[in-house]
TrEMBL record:
Gene3D superfamilies: PucR C-terminal helix-turn-helix domain. This is Helix-turn-helix domain-containing protein. Belongs to the CdaR family. Pfam families: GGDEF_2 (PF17853), HTH_30 (PF13556). It comes from Kitasatospora arboriphila.
Amino acid sequence: MTAVPGLPLRQLLMSLGEPLVELQAAPAGLDVPVRDVAILDPEEPPAAGPGELVLAIGVRGRAALPVVRAAGRGGAAAVAVKPEAGGVPDALREAAAEAGVALLSVRPETRWEHLDGLARMLIAGPDTPEAAEPNAGDLFSLAQTVAVLTHGVVSIEDTSSRVLAYSRSSDSDELDDLRRLSILGWQGPEPYLSKLREWGVFQHLRGSDAVIEIDAHPDLGIRRRLAIGIRAGAQPLGTIWVQEGAQPLAEQSEQALVGAARVAAGQLVRRRRELSADVRLTRTLLTGLLEGSTGPQSLATHLGLGLRRPATVLAYAADSPTGGADPELTRAEVTGLISVHAAARHRGALLAPIESRVYVLLPELPPALPAATLRGWAQEVVDAAHEHLGVRLRAAIGTTADGLAKVTESRAQADRILDAMVRGGVARQVAALSDVQAEVLVSEVLALLQEHTRLRDPRLTELAEYDRKHGTRLAESVLAWLDALGEVRVAADALHIHPNTLRYRVRRAEQITGLDLAQPQQRLLAMLQLRLPAEDA
């Protein structure tokens, strides 16, 4: 993968600007390159890499001091923090100056994931080499151009109303509530959004190339605005909104919006194609690595991953859908849910559906990541699948490999656990091998017995056949007695029968088959073979 040259901090600030971030300190100047975004997990030791914009999630004010110092040691470009109620403390600015790292304050209402997405898009830069041509800059530049042409305040959104880019405004009083909340990553006032739906505005934007005007609603804190859909043929890609600010919109605003929508469509189509191609290549390389058909170097080079950093594979399998649900649709929904949760917990998570299972590779893990943390992440996915999709999901945690070359071993271990879960040998929904070592091994031995009839004792097969013919429960009673280590009362209670009844059944089983359960080897084999499904025992 080609190294990202970086976006000057000055340009990043000019694009993001108010109301998202405010510069508090820049000891190295504003021309330092920002090459990537790092999300600090408060549960992990603070760390940063060269040229990173570090988002200090979970700490505010003076609590962010260790983050700022670690960012300086790692050569980060900037740290973004949310201030305490009293603002950014001087101690934080002083620490940034000593560390030689820029300090940005983030509005408390801002969603971190929203800032993360916008910053990454800006750092990635223009989509193609043609971006140097007229009208082909990035979406932020396009939004600023439209703002100049219309005298308005501009935002560009995708089909999910997620803000992709917006114009700068020197006067925050120009921004109405809908505009301000949208930039901060929140939805606008629901009464107004309901009105837009009632008036058919969203329907118009999805199905027409024409500009639509929406009147001001002072009672809702909403100013007049124009909007146009961004479309590629019949395919909606997003929307451009122009809010009227301190001065009336220019006469040529509608014409400017038509042109801007066409330029934006080209950029979004190119971005989708490039993203789709990159996703397919990544998926192919990841699948090959997990299956052992390709080595780790190709994936590592493509994504810039460290070959020798710890990595783990999580594997998920869903029960067959019930109630007539479409299996393909259910699988797509489960895959989407897994990908969202995995990305939220580990920004480098990679996902690969293979046959009926979904695998998540977690590369470059912290060396001392607790096993309980991985179990917690997997459990979140299982719980969410049940709550939101009504799907019973099982999750297996592979061993933590000491490099990408050994992730096939991690996947193989996760598969062993899932196989045991599917066969009914493991009751848990989430497990690592250390949790269920015995259950997995017994399950694998049973699978061998099920596959190779020559490994079975014909006398035990005869006992199961006797029960099927006569409607008795001799095999079940023998197994309960063996599991209870010969404690008749314990086994009888488990079967809800009288102890004498249990004694009779065990003696009867020995008489019918010729078994001698006083022999340890026969008891051992019986404990295994009688665990097979009744039709196979």
